[in-house]
Amino acid sequence: MNSITVADAKTHLSELLGRIENGEEIVITRRGKPVARLIAVEPAKQSVKSLAEFRASIQQPRTPATEVLSALRDESR
């Protein structure tokens, strides 16, 4: 975990965000005392290599949407 001053954090925010996206944690200090910790919200997602690969990974519904919607409408009556 690296630490950086408030002034440096303001100056290099874009660079810090890139480092955080790569999994690094950064502590921001004010007058030598830690005041904040920057971490990624969630791990970076891996991109899909192709649209065909993505479509193949999704399960197709067995029942057409029109039938599902009709059944839901009929249940509420």
Keyword list:
77 residues; alpha+beta; YefM-like fold; 3 strands; elongated
Write a concise synopsis of the structure shown.
The chain has one domain: YefM-like fold (3-Layer(aba) Sandwich).
What's the structural blueprint in terms of helices and strands?
Elements: E1 2-5, H1 6-11, H2 13-21, E2 26-30, E3 33-38, H3 51-57, H4 65-75
Parallel strand pairs: 1-2
Antiparallel strand pairs: 2-3
Structure, described:
The protein is of the alpha+beta class and 77 residues long. It has a single domain (2-41, 49-75), classed as YefM-like fold (3-Layer(aba) Sandwich). It is built from 4 helices and 3 strands, in the order βααββαα. A hairpin with a 2-residue loop joins β2 (26-30) and β3. The model has no long low-confidence stretch (mean pLDDT 89).
Secondary structure tally, helices: 4
CA-based gyration radius = 24 Å
- The CATH architecture can be given as 3-Layer(aba) Sandwich
State the CATH topology: YefM-like fold
Using the coordinates above, name the CATH class. Alpha Beta
Average pLDDT, to the nearest integer?
A: 89
How far apart the termini lie comes to: 59 Å
